Amino acid sequence: MGVAGTPGYTQNRELSWLRFNQRVLEEARDETVPLMERMKFVAIFTSNLDEFFMIRAGSLYDMTEADNKKCDSRSGMTPGEQLDAIYQAVAPLYKERDKTYAEIKKQLRPYGVCGLDFKELEQQEKKYVRKYFKEQVLPVLSPQIVDANHPFPHLLNKEIYVVADLKKGSKSMMGIVPVPQYISDILCLPGNDIRYVRMEKVIMEHLELVFDKYEVSDKNYICVTRNADISPDDEAYADSGDFRCIMKETLNKRRRMAVVRLETAFPLGKEMEKYFCSRFGITPACIFRTKMPMKLGYIFKIAERIPESKKRALIDPPFTPQPSASLADGSVMEQVKKKDVLLSYPYESMEPFLQLIKEAAADPGVMTIKITIYRLAKKARLVEYLCAAAENGKEVTVLIELRARFDEQNNIDWSERLEEAGCRVLYGFEEYKVHSKICLITYREKGAIKYITQVGTGNYNEKTAKMYTDYSLMTSDQEIGEDAAVFFKNMSIGNLDGAYHHLLVSPKGLKSRVLSLIDDEIRKGERGRIVMKMNSLTDVDFIHKISEASAAGVKIDLIVRGICCILPGIPGKTDNLRVTSIVGRYLEHPRVFVFGSGADAKVYIGSADMMTRNTEKRVEAACPIFDERIKKRLIHDLHVMISDNVKAREMLSDGTYRKKAGDGRVNAQETFMKEALNARRPAAQVHKTEKTSLIRRFFRLFGRR
Fold it and tell me: Which of these is catalytic: 206, 435, 636, 639?
């Protein structure tokens, strides 16, 4: 039974997210995964948890200050109760992570990858470290004492500080040393093996040289996590004519926000704990001791340094995104004019889309290129091609979202580069982020205006296209192009109420259309079928409609990577719902919606998760798939994911996950890599034996629905 006032088939979004991140940690414990890949999963788990505290815990912290009596509609919990539940749920995850890290670290030693404590160093190595510290580190340190004349400094978010008790005569005080951001996180020792000491340990070992006039005791190092949930919507737009200025001020403000977590390397004494709780305005529950590094970004650099002779045993076999089987050599633009093309990242390369923009930039028939951008890589050929198009006299419009969290500065820099090249740069809306992934090329052919439209599920980011799974549709369908033209016109004039024939666009039209498509399946009763893939699910209206569909007998499969606030298997409410989560080598990222089955199935891809922020507070776009060949391919992909019994987990009615059962071994991501490697095979096909096996397995698991 649910909490009073809740429907009984929903769960708290924050606790759901923590269960997802625990799934990431499970990958780190999986002994079938290569050791360095397991260590990367520990790093990803840690980075995820950092962002969770900065954003979600930070948001709840703000809510407790504003109105701590307002209850979450899914769990009936107040913001304060949710924070208490978070801190309680995170404590065992820390222990699990520390144990996992220690086991992997121990197993890496025989391969010559050794993270060392100072006491493990040989005498010559200790001399080397001490010399390096005195010559390269000590001159750039900024140590400080804390006493009546030296106030406690502002500690930056997610930076490490070495602290200690200092004594001089009868006076006692605290000493604080920031670990400089501009030196390496680790010090690698001479030799063929990768032996290293973390920089905070190097500094802590030599604190007597830093505070040479004091007695040093109780050495430790700490790291604070601050609330980073800042929305520029709260800023005074009227005070600035340049949105970039507002965003720069926002980034500066983020550095000064309230502390929501304190991490320490060693247990704090009672007095020190009391001092930090008072200083940061936190409770002891917000303090977490970690036996592993507080920052693990250096793991990715270490992985790059591993000798080729050892990489096979420690790292996943390399995979290169393949050329699209749907495209021949030659002009991409000319081929897309004749047929729709779907790219599947990272199994297929992003290159054809980039080539399309490059060709359009030089094509004399092309008049305009319009695109929405949410996140870009640090190095982006896409920007260079857009700039080249503007310099070639094309009208280039770029709607860039400066509020892409943690990528704000990168997007500010790119917006300036685009403007300098002559592109028209727009920044979206005051209260709505533009999260859509849509590009429109307008050209003239034989006197007629024609369109090529690209709609994707992921960002135009050339780096993450090799790490995230996503779809990218390129189509010359003129009705979709006309919708895209209306979309960009509406974005330019600030109109969120536009009407579209085919595109589903939030905040006004996407959710209502999705709910209507679910209603269509409800009317079919037990003949109804819904399969949807997304990253997160929190939208209450969508949740209630899915429950209504399940109660009507509709068979529903939701493939949800992360947060999922609907619980399956609740009698009379969600009996016909199954929820699958896949965590694997690549980050699952596509949004795909299928309503119905067989020839009548309606299939969409788009940028929106079924989260209230996406459906009501963002500009998102989803596009129908009209090409039957691509429809079959997407449905095939979804069925493979549902059949996964290696990296997939099935949600139980209490919100926990269990490994899926099934005959044979199905790893969806491995399957898609094999399909992509099968040179120039039609993309929607699989080998006859593979296909038969997958179909049989699907029907065994889910029946003929």
Answer: 435
